[in-house]
């Protein structure tokens, strides 16, 4: 019948609706994170400014230890807030990601990944950020008790960079604290390079396009 939408038209309309909903969800998440970071940074900065006005010693060793512990933890909160801001900025594009050609095989070798029968591969992106993401994931997995086993291999379309997880702990939900931000950072960086990070079997795997 004339004017009747086809199945293809309905599918495209459904896809557009889903894309709009996803875009709205991402925008809401970004706004929420930005607001939360502002609420965290302001009291952290105020607390550290007040701490700088305190004398080096109060004359009470227990009080001095308590103040040192408080300041150390406030600084830690500030570092976490900055880390989340960086991750969010990479995801949204507000933090610049360099776009230069570099040799991925050489980068992997520098960071301890033996390349299994892989030809030289030129990747366009941010060599420094990608190297930092690799280093942080290696530290995170080893902190969980993962073995010293790293592997990088290529097929026709992708590079597969794998870190073996500890036995019986094969889920990314085991990443908490600093390890969790390492995983978030890697996902943001690898995502900006057209790849993905996830758990496959007993390995944490980074996939990058060739």
Overview of this protein structure:
With 210 residues, the chain is α+β, with helices and mostly antiparallel strands. The chain has two domains: 7-92; 100-209, 2-Layer Sandwich (Heat Shock Protein 90). 57% of the residues lie in helices and 16% in strands. It has helices at residues 7-53, 61-92, 104-110, 127-143, 177-192; strands spanning 100-103, 115-116, 122-125, 150-154, 158-164, 196-200, 203-209. Helix 1 packs antiparallel against helix 2, helix 2 (61-92) runs parallel beside helix 5 and helix 4 (127-143) packs antiparallel against helix 5. The chain is globular and about 80 Å long. The mean pLDDT is 80.
Secondary structure elements and their pairing?
Elements lengths: L6 H47 L7 H32 L7 E4 H7 L4 E2 L5 E4 L1 H17 L6 E5 L3 E7 L12 H16 L3 E5 L2 E7 L1
Parallel strand pairs: 2-4
Antiparallel strand pairs: 1-3, 4-5, 5-7, 6-7
Helix pairs in contact: 1-2, 2-5, 4-5
Short description, anyone?
This protein is an alpha+beta fold. The chain has helices at residues 7-53, 61-92, 104-110, 127-143, 177-192, and strands at residues 100-103, 115-116, 122-125, 150-154, 158-164, 196-200, 203-209.
Mean of pLDDT: 80
Helicity, as a percent range: 55-70%
What is the terminal separation in angstroms? 47 Å
Shape category: globular
Which consecutive residue ranges, at least 5 long each, have pLDDT under 50?
none
What Rg, in angstroms, do the CA atoms define?
23 Å
CATH fold-level name of the largest domain? Heat Shock Protein 90
Q: In sequence order, what are the helices and strands, one letter per element?
A: HHEHEEHEEHEE
How many strands in all?
7
Count every helix, treating DSSP H or I runs of 4 or more residues as helices: 5
Q: What is the annotated CATH architecture of the largest domain?
A: 2-Layer Sandwich
CATH class of the largest domain: Alpha Beta
Strand content is: 15-25%
At the fourth CATH level, what is the homologous superfamily of the largest domain?
Histidine kinase-like ATPase, C-terminal domain
Main beta sheet: strand number and arrangement?
A: 5 strands, mixed
Multimerization status: single chain
Helix-and-strand structural type: alpha+beta
Widest sheet: strand ordering? 2-4-5-7-6
**Total domain modules:** 2
